[in-house]
Design goal:
By secondary structure, the protein is mostly helical. Helix content is about 75%, strand content about 0%. It has two domains: about 5-220, no CATH class; about 225-340, no CATH class. It starts with a helix and ends with a helix.
Length: about 350
């Protein structure tokens, strides 16, 4: 394998994998190429800044190597996340999905340049080692940056009610860098082989994403009303064009600008139809629980089947990120699905 192709494969493969994952989740319906590109370019710039600092260190210290792993890691993690942290603080990133996507974009840009620099210094390593090492490094940087930004987004001071002094916010906020710094530090110690490290990184960040997602959903559910009365109020607000009268409606209004108009229209229709069917299903269950056997007529069954088909058709047009953001409002579950279908 020639020198020119090897770095390109090892550096580009993780980025292509990242774009593929985004395409699977249809994330581009919420995020934009321009923003993704700008964040990736910032990550690449951080790599160049860090590399320049290493060169300057060696120049002013008679060629001595950079002393220790920790200073470099602190600089990298801080610079990668600082732009996104500022955006979160200014309410320009409001949802966990955005925080993770943009954080991963910054990490991908950083890893792309770092992989090229690494393979420039070590051109004789095998293609397998180069790709696995490149994948591991990319997953590391993407996971570390998105974790920091996600934690910032989940902090109480990023909610609508400001309860803390802004100065202390940033002081305590620096503690949110500790998990990523610790993971990055252990990774750079190279305690295991590259394939093992890649596997460990994937497992660790999958766990982190799962835990953060659960916490985020619970916090959002606590803010939203979940009773059937609230479902009725939200349904009436949608039908009458008064979304801002409910917490759920305010949540939908916040989502509006993150989607194309037709996509958001489908989401509103989906919410309306979903709640209509859920209310009807819950009502039937309540009547049955009271000992009243309610049987749908043939016409009602036909209309019910048609509504289910329409719901599935609209659902297919909504991107997966859209479904993810609607989960706190619709609080989908197996029981709700069963109630809607019976």
């Amino acid at each position: 394998m020639s020198f020119g192709i090897l770095p390109a494969i090892a550096a580009l493969l993780p980025i292509l994998a990242y774009l593929g994952i985004l395409q699977i989740y249809d994330a581009f319906s919420m995020t934009r190429w321009r923003k993704l590109a700008s964040h990736a370019l910032w990550g690449a710039a951080v790599t160049i800044i860090t590399y320049t600092l290493v060169i300057l260190w060696r120049y002013f210290h008679d060629g001595q190597p950079w002393t220790g792993l920790l200073p470099s890691i602190l600089i990298e993690e801080f610079l990668k996340a600082i732009v996104l942290v500022i955006l979160v603080s200014r309410r320009q990133i409001a949802f966990l999905a955005e925080a993770q996507i943009y954080g991963q974009a910054v990490g991908a840009g950083f890893a792309f340049v770092e992989n090229i620099l690494y393979l420039t210094h070590f051109p004789d390593i095998g293609i397998g080692t180069a790709i696995v090492r490149g994948m591991g490094t990319s997953m590391l940087h993407m996971g570390c940056t998105s974790t920091v930004v996600s934690l910032w987004l989940l902090m109480p001071w990023n909610k609508e009610s400001q309860q803390y002094n802004i100065r202390w916010n940033y002081i305590f906020g620096t503690l949110l860098f500790i998990p990523s710094i610790a993971i990055h530090y252990v990774y750079n110690m190279w305690l295991f082989s590259p394939p093992t490290q890649l596997l460990c990184v994937i497992i660790i960040f999958l766990l982190i994403y799962s835990i953060v997602g659960i916490i985020n959903e619970r916090l959002t559910l606590r803010w939203l009303d979940l009773s059937i009365q609230t479902d009725i109020v939200l349904l009436q607000a949608i039908q009458e064009g008064r979304l801002c009268d409910t917490n759920s409606g305010k949540y939908l209004e916040n989502i509006r600008e993150r989607f194309e108009p037709l996509v958001f229209f489908d989401m509103c229709v989906y919410v309306q139809l979903y709640i209509e069917m859920l209310i009807a299903g819950k009502s039937r269950l309540m009547l049955r629980d009271a000992g009243l056997q309610v049987e749908m007529s043939q016409e009602e069954k036909t209309a019910h089947t048609a509504k289910l088909a329409e719901l599935h058709a609209i659902s297919a047009r909504i991107p997966r990120v859209g479904h993810y953001l609607l989960r706190p409002i619709l609080h989908t579950s197996v029981k709700n699905r069963w109630a809607m279908e019976h």
